[in-house]
Amino acid sequence: MSFFGLGRPQPTSAEKIAAVENELKMMADMHNRMTRVCSAKCVDKTYRESDLAKGEAVCLDRCSAKFFDVHAKIFDQIQKETTERMAAAGGGGGGGGGFGM
Amino acid sequence: MESCYVKTAMSGVAGFGLGGLFGMFMASMAYDTPYHTAGAAVSPISSMPWRQQLSTGFRDMGKRSYSTAKNFGKVGALFSGVECGIEGLRAKNDMGNGIAAGCFTGAILARNAGPQAAAVGCAGFAAFSAAIDAWMRMPKDED
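Above: the input entities. Below: the structure tokens describing the complete assembly.
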């Protein structure tokens, strides 16, 4: 068993496939949520005509842009906290002192 | 999503056409007064020869209908452009856009007659726009 790099085991191909599947599920879920939330907020419920009015189209643009922004920010925050927690757990388990207080 | 420029242009053209028709209609109803030819004494139109009556009549109709067409075209383009712009800014599709655009258009049309006339024009045009919008947004009766 030889280790390349700093000793962390490389993910197997099954894990890689699982990771891609998870990301796809996340994207699909985000897409569904965004569609539901933004069309509830922006599209008039009386459906007087089939074409999007200019106000509705502008509203959908802004809603989806903000949704993406919020999603990206929260995702980054989650990533940051996860790596901090893992680093704290790894450091604490290996040494005795560490980052976790 | 149609762009505001396209909407403004289409409204201007439609207003021009409608104004032309309206002007032609109004011009055909204005021949009970004595008609002034350039420089000559006042002579009622019925005393001129047939062909001259026709040509004078058509020229007058053309001038009136062109001037009405220009006015209607300007009003239509201004109203449509302002309404589309306000709707784009607010990102909402309701009656407030038409009312605000009507106020702006009415004020612009009456700008030469002072601030009070502009306020009256604003109120009048906004009320007119609100009435038309309300009628168009009435829920259709289910058959």
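Note for the figure: Chain A touches chain B at residues 42, 44, 46, 48, 52-59, 62 (CB under 8 Å).
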